[in-house]
Structures are given as structure tokens and as C-alpha cells.
Amino acid sequence: MTEKIWVLEDEPIRVSFNTKGYAFYKGGRGILGSPMEAHLRLIAVRGRDQVEIPGASHLKGRVAIESTEEALEFVRLFTSKGTHYLFPDGQYIEPALAENAPGLGEFTKEYAQRMKLEPVRSRRKGDGFEIERSLVDRAGTLLRATERVGKDGDYSLMKAVIIDESSPVSFPFYE
Amino acid sequence: MYMTKTRETKGSGGLGAAGKRRTARPGAGAGLGHSKAHHLAGVSLRYLAARSALRGHGPAAPCACAGEVAYRSAGPEELRVQMRRAYSPSGSGVALAAGPPALRASGSRHPADTGTGVFMAPRFGHDISQVLVSPNIMEPTQTSLSRRLLTSPETPAGEEEADQYSSDGLLASLAGSGTCVNGGGESVCSPTTGKYGITSNSNTCCTKECTQAHEQQHVTDHDGWGCCAALSAAWGKKGADKAELVKKYNTWFATANLLSECNAYTRSVECADALATTKDCAGTGKDTDCCKDIADYKLNAETRAKSNCGAAPKTVPPCPSF
User: What is the ipTM of this complex?
Assistant: First the structure.
């Protein structure tokens, strides 16, 4: 009985791509404890239909991606510092350039130059979109990833090249 | 569907890399108490590969890996990449962390042996029988690597992490990789007892006590606020709509716990500062693994404190009417 899905209705996750009538919320199952990040999941809600989305593959067919910007927004849903924890399948976050002293998930400009980090690239390719960007895993390994996003939300990580096995980027953790 | 090709290591280093200690964190809920096997996979596979090396397996075979992973031909510089199974959003993938540079391969590849696959598959949450490993991943002299780590002059007596060796004398645990695991802690309300309690502390680093202090702060806050007890009182009533109670409690918790996290992460920072003083991290302890863990821990806690305190209400909201 307690395993019924609940959603935090005042915490919608807004996206600009077409979600085919689904609204995204933070939610989960069971009693929420600390850290909340361990319990929260992305819940797609349409009417009485509530679907837990543990990873990118579960959005296939539930979204329509129509531009390179939307494709980038789509992959960032799973890899941004603010939402990555909603997806237990996720292993990476997209690191960002720090404005000041680097915080979690950030690197300095000097580091970017030293490692010759390339900017994010997003383009149409075939019947979908291809994105090249940096990702960092939980062990701090920095990768240059090539990802494909289909127009129906089909996602695949095509290639990942290790740029720095021991980057200074700190993956957030919660307790 | 999830084709992942890995090809080369460009080399590490760079700003901040040198001297930075990497505290291992469980994946997919890292620090969240979930799916530890995913994160531990890398170390485990290193052991598996070493085991296989001694068994002298046959020639390379194409990696099936449910059609998700393909590797280039093996070369000494590429082994670590081969061992890195990249993201599979289906949930079937495992991320294989890289080994120390000394643990590079030579020779051909082959799938993990059947026994190994059967043993490790449930731990990885994935059939690894077709994950390629090298028969020569560890040269005999390399088995001493973990021992060198243990006896590193920068590791003060008493700080060594417990290593475990297989019967072959090979590294068999995460500990020997030079990392500890900060799996974080967890605490939650028990609706049957009405007590908010710590359910886990999976931090094996020297910051473990700070994780404990963090969770204890949650206990103090939530027991003090009384909403867990109120939930419990309603929970025990005949005919209680428990799903509705959970929803009400969680909605309240999502806001109230920001304040508790503000308190708890602030306490984490204080604990890290105190620990750094105890360990003399500004002096003789500066380059020790423990001090690096403390610095990592503090950076995370400071950031989390800032975000939670910024989002938290000034006072705790009243308990929901159950």
C-alpha cells in the first residue's frame, strides 16, 4: 500500500520539448527520508497515469524531440546537477565551467584550456540528433561523449573517450 | 541499441588531478545507498581479469554484451578503456572504473570465465560473461601495487585501508585500489514506531563520523519536530489510508527536510573542519588520503549546505493534519 507512487505536485520539472501530454514531477514510492535525492524519481504524469522514469530509455515514445536545442535539453535532464539524482540508472553529470572557485561538478577555465576541452556540439544526424559533450562519472573520470537522441526520445551513448581519468571535477554526493 | 565504443586514454593529469584523492562512491544512487555493485564493478573486474590471467584463457572473442558494447582490439594502452563499460541507460550497463596506471594489459582478450560470470553477474546486475578481459592484465610484479599503496610513505600508520587478497595473492577489494567508499548515510521515519532513525552509514572513509553526525542531526530535527510521531499515531488507526498518509508526510518532508539538511550539512562542515584539525591536515597530515577525503567531503558538504540553507524555510512548517 505504501509503495504507491506519489508526486510532489509543487515541484514540477519543466521542459520545453513535447512530452505528449505528460507532466514531469519529482516523486517516488514509500516514505521519503534523507537524503531525499536517494528517494526521489522522475514521475511522468498524464491524468491518472503515473509512470516512474528511472532512465533515459524509459522516455522513448513519451517525448518528441524536434530540434538540436531540445535534444540537448533532453540529455541534460539526465545529467544536470539539479536532476541527475532522479535517475538511478544515470552514471554521469555534465561538468560546467566554474564562474568562481569550482564547486561540485565544475572545472576551472585553466583546466579546460589545459585539457583542451571542446564545447558542447549538437547537430542533426540521420533521423535524430547527435550530441558531443563532456561528461564526468562518479569516480571523477572526464569523458568526451557522443550521444544520439532519436526524435522519439530514443537515447544511446555512442562513444565515450576518456579525456582525464582523474579530473578535478567532483561528482555530487548526498547523505 | 546502446552502442558504446571506447578507444583511447589521452592521459591524465591537469590542474587539480595531481594529489587529488578520489573517494569512491557507489553508483546509481551513489552516496544514496543504492546499487553499490555498479560502482564496485571496476575493482571487481580488475580482480576478475587478474584471476583470468592466471587461468590462461583462450583467444579474443567478440563482445556480445547484449549488443551494447564493443571494444577495439586490445593493446597495452587500452585495457583500462576496455574495462570501462560505459553508460547503458537501460539499466543493464555497469560502469567499470579504471584501475591504476600500473595495471595495464598486454595480450589478447577473452570473455570472463563462466564461473566468474555466474558469481559476479548478480553483483553487477548484468551478465558479464561476454565482457572482455585480458589474460595478462597483471604482470607478476604488479601484484605488489596494492602493497605499495599500503606502505606508501604518505599513508601514516593506522590509516591504511584494509586490503583483501585472493588465494592468488591478487587485489580483491575496492579498499586496495587506494580508495575508500563514501556511500553516505540514510535516515528515515518509521511509521510504526514514530521514531526517526538512522538506517545506514555506508561511509568507509575517515569522514565516517561526520556522516554519522550528519544523520544524527536529522534524527534530532525530525524527532524534535514531532511529525514522524504524528504520522505514526495516524498510521496505527484502524482503516488508515496509508498511501494518503505517506503522501501528506512526504509533501511536508520535502519542505521541512531542507531545513534539516541545512542543519545537517552545516554540521558536516563543522565536523570536517574539526577532523581536519585532528588529522593536522594543514601540517603533517596534508597529503594523506584521509585529509584529501576530508577536503572532498567538506567541499560537497559546503555546497550542499549552501543550496539547502538557501532553499529552506526559516522555520519548520507545521506537521500535516493526518
Answer: 0.87
